[in-house]
Design brief:
alpha/beta, TIM Barrel, 5-stranded parallel beta sheet, two-stranded antiparallel ribbon, 7 helices, 41% helix
Length: 161
Amino acid sequence: INMHLSSGIYITLPDRKVYLFQEYKELFLEKLIDFRKMCELAIGDSDIKICVENAGGFQDFAREGIEQLLESKVFGLTFDLGHDHSAGGMDEPFIRMHKDRLLHMHIHDALGRSNHLAIGDGEIDLKDKIALAKECGCRCVLETKTIEGLSRSVERLHNYL
């Protein structure tokens, strides 16, 4: 199961964004731990995993929350390459720090903030990312938004293996 952890509501001030989850971080973390326990009970001894996907740059409070989730064997990580690229690469260090929990990867290319491009149509170092996937033994999905993009990705994939 793949999930996005929302950054929640924020207020834009002249000099910054103020995230309510950051302002009420203790309550946020408490509720996230309750969610973790609920998932553990529901999943039980089955082999189901819930993978948290990077979806635009984890805020500090979100990283702390994800670390709480990763204390459970039912949670893992999904690394979306284009989302990380669009966020300036801010999630990759966190993902690599927890690479033992990397279970899934969304492979696609990106150019600037344009995501879900066919591999080879953007500027991501895909060989490096696919090497990480191999090292971690994680499952990968070619994630494009068009049939043509998927076809080009399949044709080019051998260049990155």
